[in-house]
Amino acid sequence: MVLPLLLPLALYATTAVASAASNFAARTNPHVIAEKRAAAVKRISDSIRRDDHGFIKRAPGTGVKNITFTNPKAAEFYVDGTHLPEVDFDIGPSWAGLLPISGNANETRQLFFWFYPPGPEGSLDDLIFWTNGGPGCSSLEGAFQENGPVTWPWGTARPVQNEYSWTNLSSVLYVEQPVGTGYSLGEPTAQDEEDVAAQLVGFLQQFLTVFKELKGKKFYLTGESYAGMYVPYIADYIYRHPSQLDLKLKGIWIADPVLGWDVVQTQIPAVNFVQKYENVFAFNQTFMAQLKHTAKQCGYSDYMSKYLKYPPRGPLPLPGHSTSYDPGCDVWDTIFEAALIINPAFNVYRIFDVYPVLWDVLGFPGSFPNVQIWPLYFDRADVKAALHASPNKTWEECTSVNVFGAAPGGKDKSLPPAFTVLPNVIEKSERSVIIHGLADYVLIAEGARIALQNMTWSRKQGFQKPLKTDSFIIDGFGAYGNMQSERNLTYYEVSLSGHMVPQFAPWAGIQSNDLAPHGSHAALETEPIPKSFARVLNASSVRSEYKKRKRNGEDDSKDPGAGQRKRRKVADGEAPLHLLPGESLGSFNRRVEDNMRPQMRLAVQTGQANARRQNALEKEERAARKEAKSTAETKKNTRGDTQEDLPTPLVPPSAKNARGGNGADTPIVPTAPKGKTEFDSVSSQKPKRLNDIVAAPPDLQALLKKNKVLQKTKKDGEVFGKKDIISPEQRRMMEVEREKAIKRYRELREKKQDGR
């Protein structure tokens, strides 16, 4: 009897094993994997293209695929997009070549540029400038592997079209600078960032002479790494010399930038970085204990917890006596050397890379230059000819020439921008963006946080509030990192991205840099409204309704809160309660909430003031009751229903003093109930989120019963409570109750007078 039962079970088990094996084979089949990957990419791509407030599909703009320059010299720089070597698709028209850094006839220093006009969805009104860092690294790396219309990623056999090209936003100008970088010609003479900025502005003057149709465009300076030095100093130079350049500088964007001292951006956060990614570094416990001991001895281990505060508590000190590191405190290099032992392909630019090192057409695929093909793409004769570069110039991604060789010691003499020009640039720009990959070990994100918290701009030091976790939302991807935005500076941290954000997370790079207005938001009108969004709208409607229904003829001049409300109105700027062009729902929520914070702060302060007043009145009431009881006992006679035996209506002292005659016409204020009041929910001792405070309109009946806001009459007849948030309905209902109390009091008085 057992065998018939076992046979079906055996058959089922065999079928299950075969099915599992088939599923495993399907999961590991490279063709199946490729199909699934293509399907996933298509879903993401379709999601982005359907998103009318996204950064790929945009409403028809003023951008065109081609553009005409009237200066005949411009034709000398034209690049045919159908004949770029190894590129089997049309990249569109572009212009490239060399231009001098000044108008001097004998000028020998020239910078190489590659200019792309905007795509059909880009803006012709904007011009983005891009530079890589180094110092001395070519901006063609950015053009060919990060944010240009054509990209040749590491480990791939041929270039592909870049879906996240910044030409989807506007025109882009790539410049190899300073002198000595890439194809650029001449002897480097720059000694500091002031020299670099002056030379670049001189080049831009020559560029606009040839391409004069670009004059007057809105101008954005962008770059990465050592461009954290270049970009702020260039921007500051332009702001100080506005007449030298016929462009309207609007803002800056810098990725994983040099901002402060080496010890801050590399040494202090290094051990904490390893602990955060301990499974990636895979160090043994003995070595980790050694690192922690060194970090503690050098003052690194508790630096973050002690000094990285929001808002900061004052200037942040160095952990030792050096701006790089004290003897025996170079933990960054110790970690780097150990990481290379465990993972020979360890990449400081993106720590997740593993062996083998991928092939790179530009010759720099990881921590070190790694030439696996010769010549490099931009060192090929046919590429040089196509781009109008000098045939005799040897191209390197990061030059072996010291671009600051003319400076004493061969180093840039300028101080880090966080101590000098960056605050001024932020204050003068319409928008400043700093973005940082969290998988970058060259410059660590927590070091950038320290540098920013030690910087003062717009009369305040650092960010006043910490970064909002998972608040950087990428259209089509979801939460992709953290961000904070205060006083014209926006800081992003990008998950899974290394040093080159436009290369490792191009969707984050283009969205964070999208300064141009977007198209229609019609698609948003049919989307369900998130709960937090509804709460903000609800609170806003309550506030608007209250303002509309204020009593006609109310004299603001007698209102002690009128001036404050007027100032608040100016400060609020009357932010529109609708989505702005290019604004996501999350950004709208934050903008409206920020706009309402002064009102909510006033409500909290008013509640606290009322609580203090109520406590004082209750104290007076207790004293009055005690006095009334004593008087009643003294005057008590044989009649048990005399007026003295009746409850005594309590009147605030100010009302008693203002009473004339027998006080028959004096309003009687109802006694405020004891215990918890309505304003307890917004007490400063019990902090709540803004959304919790404004979640729903107040229950007028509950407010009336609790009677949280007391009325009292001053000598001048002014009614106490105008500063309090009381609607006209509440006020009318309180007046009805007051009239009832007055009527009852008069009846009792008449009863006593009649001797009944």
Key features of this structure:
23 helices, single chain, ten-stranded mixed sheet, 3 domains, Rossmann fold, two-stranded antiparallel ribbon, elongated, 756 residues, disordered N terminus, alpha/beta
Structure notes:
- The chain is an alpha/beta fold and 756 residues long.
- The protein has three domains: 2-44; 51-268 and 376-512, Rossmann fold, CATH 3.40.50; 585-754, no CATH class.
- 38% of the residues lie in helices and 10% in strands.
- It contains 23 helices and 16 strands.
- The strands form four sheets. It has a ten-stranded mixed beta sheet, with helices on both faces.
- A hairpin with a 3-residue loop joins strand 13 (473-474) and strand 14.
- The longest helix is centred in the last third of the chain and has 51 residues, at 585-635.
- Residues 544-589, 605-690 are annotated as: Disordered.
- It comes from Serendipita vermifera MAFF 305830.
- Its EC number is 3.4.16.-.
